[in-house]
# Entry
Amino acid sequence: MSRIGKKPVVLPAGVKAELSGRTVKVSGPKGHLTWTVPRTIDLALEGGQVVVRRADDLKQTRALHGLSRALIANMVHGVQQGYEIKLEVYGTGYSVKKEGTNLLLNIGFMGRGVGKPAQFVIPIPAGLQVDVEVQAARGENEPAKFTVRGVDKQQVGQFAAEVRKLRKPEPYKGKGVRYAGEHIRRKAGKVFAGGGG
# Structure
């Protein structure tokens, strides 16, 4: 038995689950999520808990057993408390701003006009909320900051990763988009030997 898969998912107060065929719907104070379970996995509601069972002991089914339980637990956590990822933008002149349903990022790339910074316009997907705490970076120790929030763990992580990928932190000055608390291994720049004599 999968050690993760056999643990029932407890439904906290304010969260309810509904089973309809192979689809599970979890609702809570933050919203609701639905997911269709694989054919070899069975779900049951037993006394305020979701119990996950598997049909056979094939390797693939055993893997899906633990995965299914983990995904349902993530859904329960998401609709009850939600997920958030904090990001920071390092670099002089770099900035982040929210306009309507778009996130605007100035991260140092040059536009068509000489000396004009290019601005990335990133549509914020439905179901996600982005809050900008600090709009502009002011040197190496004062980055621009924003937070991505939502009920779907996968959606929050995917959006944050896509934004970070636009300008990954570089190892010399550390400029770019990074997760809050992320440590960047720094490299020393080239040292030019002086003509001592």
